[in-house]
Amino acid sequence: MERIRTLGIYQPFASLMLHGKIEIRVRRINTKPPFPLGQYLIYSTKKRYSDGDLLPICGNEIRDNIFTVLKNDRTKDLDQTAIAICTLVDVRPLSKSEEDKAFVLFKGIITRLNKNTENSEQFIQYGLHFENIQPIEPFKWTHGKQGTGFVPETELSKIKFQN
Fold first, then answer.
1. pTM, whole model, 2 decimals?
2. Tell me, what's the pLDDT at 145?
3. Strand 5-9 vs strand 38-44: parallel, antiparallel, or unpaired?
4. Residue ranges of domains in the chain, CATH in brackets
5. Cα separation of 111 and 159, whole Å?
6. Which of 68, 101, 105, 109 is such that its CA lies 20 to 30 A from the CA of 94?
7. Residue 136 CB-density burial (10 A; 0-12 exposed, 13-18 middle, 19+ buried)
């Protein structure tokens, strides 16, 4: 049996995965994010974004849309909780037309100063495209922070799909 990978995401973005969100990772140009295709358990991290944290990432319009989409979502207030199983089917640079599904502002090429070398480096947003998003009965997740890992065998029995 193939091991299930995990992906920890800050709220409210974790709950947005249940609504077809394209997850975003920012990487240096010409370096693809290290996300193998396959099955992932999505969980919300212990830390979440505040409303103020969302503004530079989303802007006002997308932030307001997030609150609208999640208005009746029962997972939106759950931190450090496993909430879904889904399949990563593609990892590719984000396009402007995908901004609404990503729930973040499209930034194109991002230039940042490397504090260690004082050289400028260029980055782009990559979209992680998931399909077969299945909500599960939420359960506490204490096996990681934002990022990836694997579901420990001791946790597999806790994954129960909702009807």
1. 0.91
2. 72
3. parallel
4. 5-158 (2.30.130.30)
5. 41
6. 68
7. middle
